[in-house]
Amino acid sequence: MSENQLSGKAREALRHIRNSVMHTGKVLSVRDLMGLMEYKSPRSALLLMQELEQGGFLRKRLDGSYSMLKDIRNSEDSVQTINVPLVGTVTCGAPILAQENIEAMIPVSTALAKPGSKYFMLRAKGDSMNEAGINDRDLILVRQQNTAENGQTVVALIDDEATVKEFNRNGNFVTLTPRSSNKKHQPIIVTDELKVQGLVIATIPIPE
C-alpha cells in the first residue's frame, strides 16, 4: 500500500510517527499519538496504528509496541522531512527550546537535518554575520550541541539572548567573532563557561 492510499488521519499519524523516529529513534506510543492527534481516547489512535500496520508501514512487536518498517525511512519516491522548531528571542533565562519560544514547526529535509541529532531554527537579526552568508531575516538551521571547534559558527547564549558568531577558544577564554562588512560589530570575549547551544548547519535565505 502507498501513503496515498491511507486515510487522511492515517497519513497525519504517519507524519507524527516519522518525526518521532527521526528525532528520537522510537515509534510513538498509542498514548503519545493520542495526544498529538488531540484525541480524547486511545482507541482512536490505536485504530490508526492498526491501519498503518495493515498497510505495511508498521510492524507490531511481541511486547505490543510498534516498529517502523525500513522502507518508510529509506523511501526513494519522496523527500523525507522532519519538523524542526523555529524559536524566537530567548529572554529571562528561559531555555532556548522552551515552549514559549517556539513560533512554528518547519519541515526540513533529512538530507540537512540528519537523523540521530536534534535541531532547531532561528531567525537571524542584523548583519553581524553577513560575510558568512547569514543575512537579516534568514532562517538558520542549528544542530543542538554544547561544544564547538575553533572556526565553527555557533549559537550561544549571552545575557539570556541568542547570538550567532564564529567560535574561537584560547585557554580559558572564548572569542565570539562577527564576520561582517559592518565594522561596528566587534569580537566578544567571554570565559570558557559560555553556553553553546548548537552548531549552524545551514542558512535558508528568505526572499524580500
TrEMBL record:
Its EC number is 3.4.21.88. One of its GO terms (biological process) is DNA replication. InterPro entries: LexA, LexA-like, LexA/Signal_pep-like_sf, LexA_repressor, Peptidase_S24_LexA, Peptidase_S24_S26A/B/C, WH_DNA-bd_sf. One of its GO terms (molecular function) is serine-type endopeptidase activity. CDD domains: S24_LexA-like (cd06529). Residues 85-201 form the Peptidase S24/S26A/S26B/S26C domain. Pfam families: Peptidase_S24. The keyword Lipid biosynthesis does not apply. Keywords: Autocatalytic cleavage, DNA damage, DNA repair, DNA replication, DNA-binding, Hydrolase, Repressor, SOS response, Transcription, Transcription regulation. Gene3D superfamilies: Umud Fragment, subunit A (2.10.109.10). Belongs to the peptidase S24 family. This is Repressor LexA. It comes from Pseudochryseolinea flava. The gene is lexA.
